[in-house]
Amino acid sequence: MKLHEYQAKQVFADAGIPTPDSALASDVDGVLEAAADIGYPVAIKAQVQVGGRGKAGGIELVESDEEAREAAERIIGMDLKGIHVERVLVEEAVDFTNELYVGVTMDRGEGKPVAMVSTKGGVNIEEVAEEDPDAIAREHIDPSFGMQPYQARKVVFDAGVDRAVATDVAGVLSTLYDLWTSKDGSDAEINPLMVTADDEVIAADAVMNIDEDALFRQPEIAEMGEEAAGGDELEQKADEYGFDYVRLDGSVGIIGNGAGLVMTTLDLVDYYGGSPANFLDVGGGAKAERITNALDMVFSDDNVDSVVFNIFGGITRGDEVAKGINEALEAFDEIPKPVVVRLAGTNWEEGMEILNEDLVTVEQTLEDAVQRSVEYAEEGEA
Amino acid sequence: MSVLVDEDTRVVVQGITGGEGKFHAGQMMEYGTNVVAGAVPGKGGQEVDGVPVYDTVDQAVREEDADASVIFVPPAFAGDAIFEALDTDLDLAVAITEGIPTQDMARVNKRLTETDTRLLGPNCPGIITPGESKLGILPGNIFAPGDVGLVSRSGTLTYQVVDSLTNRGIGQTTAIGIGGDPIIGTDFVDALAAFEDDPDTEAIVMCGEIGGEDEEEAAQYIADHVDTPVVGFIAGRTAPPGKRMGHAGAIVSGSGTGTAESKIDALNDAGVPVGDTPEEVADSVESIL
C-alpha cells in the first residue's frame, strides 16, 4: 500500500525528519491561503500516486498569487496518467545546493533489509541503479539487531556524502530505518533529501510503501490507506471483492485460481494470438458467490469480448465453481459475452454435471479453452 | 526413492484444530501420511480425528517423535509458529500460510542460518512423494509414482503440469512447492540439489515465474552442478512492469529486473529447454525419458 506524499511526510515529520512547511489544498482559494501562510516561492504538487509526476505536469513552482492561481486551476482536476487530481500539496520551495537519495527496502535476494544512500538524488533512482550502480552505497541490516549507528555512518561515508552534513544524513537514515521497521514498510525513501547552503538537510519528497500483509497490526496506517485509495474504478471494485486483479488492455477476460496458473493463462492467450484484458485470481477455496463476483468484475470491463474460466481445483471445488457460474449467468436475459469454461482437479466431474452448458462453452484442456476464447474475442471485435 | 519426505516421515500439524488444519490433516492421513500429532497452544490433551494434540511442538516431538511439521496457522501468528518449528530442531517445516508479513520472514530467514531445519514455503502448497506421503494441500489424486522431480513457485500451476505428465503415464519421485513469497526457505537451488542427489529422479521440471532472480541463480547452478536433464517453464511473460501478479513475489520491477525473458534466456543458456505451454513441458519430458 502506498501512502500519498503528504501522508508520508507527516509520518516522517512526526518521527523528527526535517520536512518543508506545507499544507494540503483541494481548491484555488485553499492554495492561495496556504501559499500566503508559507510565503512565496512555493511548489504546488499533485497528490496522486503515479511515477514521473513532475514530467507529466503535476508539479509547478510559483512565485506569486497570479502564478499560484493559474497553476492551481490547471493542476486540480487534471487527469494525470489516468488519475484524477483532487488535492495538491502547497509546499515551501527549498533553496538547495545538493540533492541526495536515502532509502530502506527489502533485498529479496538476500532476504535482508538494505539501506541505501546516493549523492545522485533528485533523479529516478532506478535509472541510477541501472546506469551507474556504484553511485549507490548499500548496507545490509541484520533484522534481529536493527541498524547499528556505525552502519548508518558507513553507508553515508561510502556514498561520498559531504562531511559537513554526514552526521545529519546518518541520523535521517537511522530514523528512516526505525520507521520502516515499526510501520512494516516495504520501501521508505527520501528523494531528494535536499542539502541547503547552511548545511541543513530537508526531505523534499517522501515515499512510504507499506507491506499489505502487515496492515492488521498497523491500524493508523490502514486508516491512511482508506484515504489514499484511488486508481482505476475496476481495481477499486476488485479491492471490495477481495480479488487479486490487474487490469490490462486486451479483450479476453481471464478468471482462474492461483497466481501462477492465472499468469500462465494470460501467457497462453497471448501465445494463441489474443490479448488478455485482465489478471483475476479468485484465490483458493472459492465458493459460488465469489465466482459470481468474479464474472461480474470481468463483465464490467467494456474492453472484454470473451471470457475464459480456468480452474484447477486443489482446495477449490469444481461443483462450487459450476454453481457460481450458473448463478451469475442465469441472472442475465442474454449472456453479455461468450464464456469458455475449463474445470480440472477436485470435483471437476461433479462440476461438469452441474454446469449449464446452454450458457457456456466447455473445453477439456487449458490449451483448447484458451484458443476458443481467443476465437470468440476475434469474432466479437469483427 | 524420493527427496525430503517418505512413508516414514512423522508429521506434527501446527494449527490442527483450525478449519484448514483439521481438513487438510484429514486429507493427508487419507493419502497415507503418518500424522502423529497436532500442536496448538491451549488445546493440549484434545484429539482431532484420533490424532493427539499438544500445547507445544516440543511436546509433540518428545511424546510422538515427530520429525516434520506442517503449519496451518493464521498469518499474524505464523512467523512465531515457524520459529517454534525451527527451534525444535525438526528436519523439515512446511509453511502453507499465505500473507505472512515480510519483516517477520526476514527474522525467520536470519534464524534459518542458525538451525539445521529445512523450511519449505511459506505460501506454498507443500510437498508430496506420490504413493507415500504428502505434507500440505496438494490434491493427491493427480500424482503418480515415477521418475520425474518437480519444483515450482506456484501451486495450481504445479497441478496443471503434473496433470499433463500423469495423463501421459509419467509419474513423479517428489513434487516440491517452494512458494510465491519474496522471502522463502527452500529455493530452486536447494530443490535441484536434492533431486540431483536422488538416483531415482531421471528428469527435473522447474516451474518459475516473474519476479526476483531465483530462476537466474538456478540456471547458473544447473550449468555448474546438475547432470540430470531439466525442463523449465516460466509464468508471467505478458505481465506488465510494476504490477503485482497475485503472489507477493511476482512482480517485474520498474527497472526491468525479474522479467520472464531474462529467466528464459538464463535457462536456455544453461541448456534447459523452456516450454511455451504446459503441454510443451510434458512433451520435452516425454522425449527425455
UniProtKB/TrEMBL annotation, chain A:
Binding positions for ATP per the UniProt entry: 45, 52-54, 91, 94, 99
Residues at which Mg(2+) binds: 191, 205
Residues at which substrate binds: 257, 314-316
GO cellular component: succinate-CoA ligase complex
Keyword entries, A-Z: ATP-binding, Ligase, Magnesium, Metal-binding, Nucleotide-binding, Tricarboxylic acid cycle
Obligatory cofactor(s): Mg(2+)
GO MF terms held by the record: ATP binding; magnesium ion binding; succinate-CoA ligase (ADP-forming) activity; succinate-CoA ligase (GDP-forming) activity
The ATP-grasp domain, residue ranges: 9-221
GO biological-process terms attached to the record: succinyl-CoA metabolic process; tricarboxylic acid cycle
Function: Succinyl-CoA synthetase functions in the citric acid cycle (TCA), coupling the hydrolysis of succinyl-CoA to the synthesis of either ATP or GTP and thus represents the only step of substrate-level phosphorylation in the TCA. The beta subunit provides nucleotide specificity of the enzyme and binds the substrate succinate, while the binding sites for coenzyme A and phosphate are found in the alpha subunit.
Record's protein name: Succinate--CoA ligase [ADP-forming] subunit beta
Species: Halovivax asiaticus JCM 14624
Top-level taxonomy: Archaea, Methanobacteriati, Methanobacteriota, Stenosarchaea group, Halobacteria
GN (gene name): sucC
TrEMBL record, chain B:
GO BP field: tricarboxylic acid cycle
Leading EC class: ligase
UniProt keyword list: Ligase, Nucleotide-binding, Tricarboxylic acid cycle
Positions contributing to substrate binding: 159
Alphabetized SUPFAM superfamilies for the sequence: NAD(P)-binding Rossmann-fold domains (SSF51735), Succinyl-CoA synthetase domains (SSF52210)
Positions in coiled-coil regions: none
UniProt-listed Enzyme Commission number(s): 6.2.1.5
Pathway: Carbohydrate metabolism; tricarboxylic acid cycle; succinate from succinyl-CoA (ligase route): step 1/1
Record-listed CoA binding positions: 17-20, 43, 96-98
An annotated Gene Ontology molecular function: succinate-CoA ligase (GDP-forming) activity
Region (Disordered): 269-289
Assembly, per entry: Heterotetramer of two alpha and two beta subunits.
Name of the protein described by the UniProt record: Succinate--CoA ligase [ADP-forming] subunit alpha
Organism: Halovivax asiaticus JCM 14624
GN (gene name): sucD
